[in-house]
Specification:
Layout lengths: L1 H13 L3 E6 L13 E7 L8 H11 L1 H6 L3 E7 L1 H5 L19
Parallel strand pairs: 2-3
Antiparallel strand pairs: 1-2
């Protein structure tokens, strides 16, 4: 299962204080049961002093194989512990699907 692989790789790479891997494929024009669109929320001490682009590159690097071969879209939300504690509503909601053809 791709979702489990994502969780394992992010756990190994970042030792997160909080991790959510959400399969958002159902929100898109894909076959039922697809694992193609994900949102990840990663809270890690490793992000201290790191710019947003560096955080995203680190997540992309940890998931390079999945991004190259399995994942069509990945929404990345990265936080330090202090930033996460300041989030009253959690990570932002993902935008609505803008269409596209079914993935086969």
């Amino acid at each position: 299962m791709i979702q489990e692989r994502i969780e394992e790789k992010l756990q190994q790479a970042f030792a997160p204080l909080h991790l959510e891997v959400i399969n958002e494929s159902y929100m898109h024009n894909v076959p039922e049961g697809s694992e193609s669109h994900f949102k990840v929320i990663v809270v890690s001490e490793q992000f201290e002093g790191m710019r947003l682009i560096g955080r995203h590159r680190a997540v992309n690097g940890a998931l390079a194989d999945e991004l190259a071969n399995h994942i069509h879209a990945l929404a990345i939300h990265t936080y330090t512990e202090a930033e996460w504690q300041g989030q009253q509503d959690g990570a932002p909601a993902s935008p609505a699907c803008r269409g596209g053809s079914k993935l086969g």
